[in-house]
Design a protein that fits this description.
The complex is a heterodimer of chains A (229) and B (193).
Chain A lengths: L1 H44 L7 E5 L10 H4 L2 E5 L9 H17 L8 H9 L1 H18 L5 H10 L14 H15 L2 H4 L7 H9 L1 H13 L9
Parallel strand pairs in A: 1-2
Helix pairs in contact in A: 1-3, 3-5, 3-6, 5-7, 6-7, 6-9
Chain B lengths: L1 H21 L5 H6 L22 E7 L3 E2 L11 E6 L3 E3 L2 E4 L4 E10 L9 E8 L8 E2 L2 E4 L4 H11 L5 H4 L9 E2 L5 E5 L5
Antiparallel strand pairs in B: 1-3, 1-11, 2-10, 3-6, 4-5, 6-7, 7-9, 8-11
Classes of the chains: A mainly alpha (229), B alpha+beta (193).
Chain lengths: 229, 193
């Protein structure tokens, strides 16, 4: 009898561990499927004929020298990023930005090695390129590009030393994305479903100066590039 | 009692919403320049079928010189005109005759940068008579002189002698230039739907 009870206890404990493992695995799988679905829709809708994969990582992002987006063309979505993603548009915004970097790394000499090195040498330049291209990718895949503005507004910090760091200040990035949408996809601004979104409202608040510069450019018909703050 | 509590909560939510509406930041740029205009929602490309592998090259030449910077500097959104250089033949038939005018626009411009990074011009929205846009692989791009190709090996060679390796960073790449004599290749997939 004692043996039977011991066997039963071990069996139940084992089943519980498996059930917990299954639940974690199912959650991981559903996250992976969600990322795959949006990522692959962007690839197909934009005729990106390069092999790029999407990987969900339940761990935390750790900064390393290696950037798998441009070296392995593997876009890794860390679980912690979910805290900034509120809808499909914002997920598409994150993935579209990374896809444009990955796709860029295929171009040029030595199988894209040189392009990848250039993205590393001049991250600010290619960050702006990737933002603009992400807008195109999102629109072609049926997502609202204003999701990129709201995502940037809530997720990117405004570094004190933005002249020295390797990223553009988010206020500049958002202003450039706004201008790109204004010029190429005004429908989304004229019929803005994000207008009442608190992050979009916050963008409107912190971009008053930058939008005034764009207003002046439009008024004067200038074609010069605006130096956004 | 429950009714009164529900009514109170609803009133509180409504008054909060109306108070919030007052603090909305207006987008006067949109209000002044886009309001009242009709815009068509851009069509998403979700009904694709990439089964067919037939591909036809369209050689095109620009009518006016442009570059990523300098005297002939283009700007994003700039309208462009190209001419088809040779007859484009598919299934023994001329599908696009030589001399056909093709409209397009400048898409994104990236300037030249340190470590030999070249400027790059992207061109998109090609309008070719009798060819639907979804059958064209776009955007296409033209780069300037890519000096990274020789700067990288030089940088590696000089790295053991600091700071000589870092000096290579100050070499810039070339501006992207498209002249009327340049032939750009545009690819058309006649059976894509």
């Amino acid at each position: 009898m004692k043996r039977f009870i011991l066997f039963l206890a071990i069996f139940i404990a084992g089943s519980m561990v498996l059930a917990v493992d299954d639940a974690a695995l199912l959650k991981e799988k559903s996250c992976q499927q969600y990322i795959n679905e949006i990522g692959t829709t962007i690839l197909n809708a934009n005729k990106i004929d390069k092999h790029i994969i999407f990987t969900y990582d339940k761990g935390e992002y750790k900064k390393t020298m290696n950037d798998p987006t441009i070296t392995k063309r593997q876009i890794i979505f860390y679980n912690e990023y979910f805290k900034y993603i509120d809808n499909d548009d914002e997920m598409a915004a994150f993935l579209a930005h990374q896809i444009s970097r990955a796709a860029k790394s295929f171009s040029g000499e030595w199988g894209g090695f040189v392009s990848s090195a250039q993205i590393k040498f001049a991250p600010k330049k290619y960050e702006i390129f990737a933002d603009k291209r992400a807008v195109d990718y999102m629109v072609n895949a049926g997502y609202n590009p204003i999701g990129l503005i709201t995502l940037l507004n809530k997720s990117r910090p405004q570094n004190v030393l933005d002249k020295l760091v390797f990223h553009n200040p988010p206020t500049r990035r958002m202003a450039i994305v706004y201008e790109y949408i204004y010029n190429n996809y005004p429908y989304y601004l004229a019929n803005n479903v994000y207008f009442d979104n608190i992050n979009y409202q916050n963008f409107l608040l912190n971009s008053v100066e930058n939008r005034a510069k764009l207003k002046e450019k439009i008024k004067t018909g200038s074609t010069k590039r605006i130096k956004y703050d | 009692m429950i009714r009164y509590i529900t009514l109170f909560i609803l009133t509180a939510i409504m008054s909060f919403n109306s108070a919030y509406a007052h603090i909305q930041v207006k987008d006067d740029l949109v209000d002044q320049t886009l309001a009242g205009k009709e815009f068509v929602k851009p069509e998403a490309n979700l009904d694709y079928n990439y089964q067919d592998t037939d591909k036809v090259m369209i050689p095109i030449q620009i009518t006016q010189k442009i570059s990523s910077a300098g005297k002939y500097a283009a700007y994003e959104g700039m309208p462009l005109e190209f001419t088809v250089k040779e007859n484009v033949i598919y299934n023994h038939k001329i599908v696009i005759p030589a001399g056909t005018k093709v409209k397009a626009r400048v898409d994104i411009i990236t300037g030249k940068g340190i470590s030999g990074i070249p400027g790059e011009l992207f061109i998109t929205d090609f309008e070719i008579p009798n060819v639907p846009g979804y059958q064209i692989m776009e955007p296409i791009s033209k780069r300037g002189q890519n000096r990274t190709l020789w700067i990288l090996p030089l940088k590696w060679a000089l790295t053991p002698l600091p700071p000589l390796g870092s000096f290579t960073n100050i070499i810039f790449g070339g501006d992207a230039v498209i002249k009327p004599t340049h032939t750009l290749k545009l690819y058309y997939y006649p059976n894509w739907i």
